Amino acid sequence: MIAVGHMSLVCSLALNLAFSGFLIYQLYFWWRKKTEMPQVFLGLYRVSNIVSLGLFFFVSLSFFILIYGFYQADYTFLLVSKYVSNQQPWYYRVSAVWGNHEGSMLLWVWLLALTQILFTGIIKKDSLQSFVSLGIASLVVCSFILYILSASDPFLAFIIPPVQGRGLTPLLQDPLLVIHPPILYFGYVLTLIPFSQATGFLITYTFLENKVEKEKAKKELLQILKWPVCIAWMFLTLGIMLGSYWAYYELGWGGYWFWDPVENASLLPWLALLALIHFRILADKQKNYYGSLLFTAILAFLLCILGTFLVRSGILSSVHAFAQSPERGLFILVLLMIWGAFSLGILAYKLPNLQERQLRKKMYLDSIFLLVGINCFLAILITTLWGTIYPLIMQVVFGQYISVGPLYFERLIGPFAFIGVAMLALIYTDLKSKMHKIKKISFYIILGGGLFIYMMAKGASFFQSASGGMGAVLITVMSLYCLEKPFSLRGVGIAIIHGAFGLFLIGASWDAAFQQVDTLTFKLYEKKSFHKYQLIFDKYKVTQGVNYQGVEVPLEVFRGSVYIGLLTPQWRLYKELGQDVQKTSQLVIQGISQLYVVIQSMQKGKVTVKVWYRPLINILWISGMMMILGLIFLIRRKKYDI
Question: Are residues 482 and 526 in the same domain?
């Protein structure tokens, strides 16, 4: 099985390399002869379908052989022996495939192969731009398969396999490991489509002979970029949301986002895709800004490779990072440099050809506001990128170990986020007359200003109060926008997405301002007061899992004389690793707030716990799901505009 899995990867590489070479040869032949273009393109289209399916078959064969080895706990696989034990439940054995470096990269390549099939399905049969883009995508897939075969082979074998494996790290033995990495990775790899489309457009644009063909190519670019960008952003949103929730209840740190460098690595392409979505709208509206559109399309994919380098090289100190492997990190860094130099070099060389001498359309206020908002997204991206890589630069160049804390990100990102939200509010405010303008702005000031003053009076900081106030304004703007327009999926989708972001601002600022935390020590059956609640410690309970033993600390929760529920934090000891891990407990209170408990220490008849009250915390997860729902409404539209 190991040999079959390895050979399937070799076959997939050979097949895709042969196809890329054939594609380049056919396009070169057409470029020299300039004849029989329909026949050449039709032949390429048929071959590309066969090759994409063949590639997916070979990569899938390798991937599912590895999954089967993990499922069966086949210790002839060196990788299986490191991350699987006999005691692990089957679903953790399967999800352990992407809980390590080699397996996660094979998942990445499998998703790339799936993306190449999707790419082949959306290209136009008579478009030179589409086939050049497909050739670039094929070469990218080849480079990652070559990386796996050279530096990250998951099909290494034991001559004498062990009887027992090491097992998966306890923090990764969680149901979200099953779905979080595949969702996040799919968002990453879908950025391949806008990247290859942007570079393919740049290469072929100067071959076009007249203005009509050039305008057709631009229109084709905007049309093809529509759904891959939106779906990539949707999967990244869902992946980031699941990751933040996982960190919230698993790490026991009482938070959901810590500006960890690896967390930032997923945020960076999310911001780039957000800017790309809005640049696409602006380019379609103004028939301009194609250079910025192409740059953000390239940037999103390069940031995904950068994130892979940061996570896989081991250069970062993070709970998310994989074990240190300089060789692997160097290979990914080389890939980043090659594809970055190739795409950005073409952009710099071809950009003057896009700056055609034509009278620009007059920019209306909504387009100006949109452009300012996009620049705010990019400013947040640059700030986050610098805060992430600056410690690495200091470490590599000067040998100094420094860290950039949350204060840096919050203080620098805050003003840009504030301006960006203000621009969103202005874009969707229909100012028909002076009186209408006065009434609407007065309404916004009353609601947003009222929440701002209330939060300040309750002890929130200026930044927290301003974020809450802007969130209220944005929700109000989008509600009025939806009510004033005739019903349409477009209007509903826009209102949900942007209103959800306003809801997120309120939830995040309220939770940061008014959360309560305390450390309580209980004796058996003792009652303690915390915030508006009373907690009573019942006796310990011993729990038994498939591969762990644990102690549960039941805490009954009352509000006055009303019983609310039961908190059940645990302390687990995993048999195969001899490692203990705390399991937090969250109890939903009043629908959208939570009590959050972590065990600090246990003694005979006494326990010390750390307790948080997290007001409106569930709004964060609700707002994320609302963004995804709104985007689904927009994707169903044939025309995607403001």
Answer: no
Evaluate the CA torsion angle 255, 260, 265, 268 in order and state its sign.
positive
157-166 tens-digit pLDDT = 987 888 888 8
pTM as predicted: 0.92
- Residue 642 belongs to some domain of the structure: no
Please list the residues that pair with 517 across neighbouring strands.
612
- The reply to whether 550 and 466 lie within a common domain is no
Q: How far apart are CA 481 and CA 500, in angstroms?
A: 14
DSSP assignment string, 30-99: HHHH---HHHHHHHHHHHHHHHHHHHHHHHHHHHHHHHHHHHTT-TTBHHHHHH--TTS-HHHHHHGGGS
Residue 516 parent element (H or E):
strand 516-523
Structural domain containing residue 442: 429-514+623-633
- Do residues 16 and 85 both lie within one domain? yes
Residue 358: Cβ within 10 Å count: 9
- Most confident option among 310-314, 352-356, 430-434, 496-500: 496-500
Residue 562 structure tokens: 């009303």
DSSP string, 557-586: EEETTEEEEEE--EEEEETTTTEEEEE-EE
Dmax over Cα atoms in the chain, in whole Å? 89
Which of 53-57, 476-480, 532-536, 618-622 is predicted with the least confidence, judged by mean pLDDT? 476-480
Q: Does 130 lie in the same domain as 36?
A: yes
Instruction: Say how far apart CA 124 and CA 224 lie, in whole Å.
Output: 9
- Domain annotation covers residue 185: no
Higher per-residue pLDDT: 629 or 443 = 629
| Same domain membership, residue 547 and residue 489 | no
Q: What is the pLDDT of residues 287-343, one digit of tens each?
A: 888 999 999 999 999 999 998 888 766 565 554 445 456 677 788 889 999 999 999
Asked whether residue 184 is domain-assigned, the answer is no
Q: What whole-number distance in Å separates Cα of residue 642 and Cα of residue 627?
A: 16
Residue pLDDT, tens place only, 345-377: 999 998 887 765 444 556 677 888 899 999 999
Amino acid at 491: G
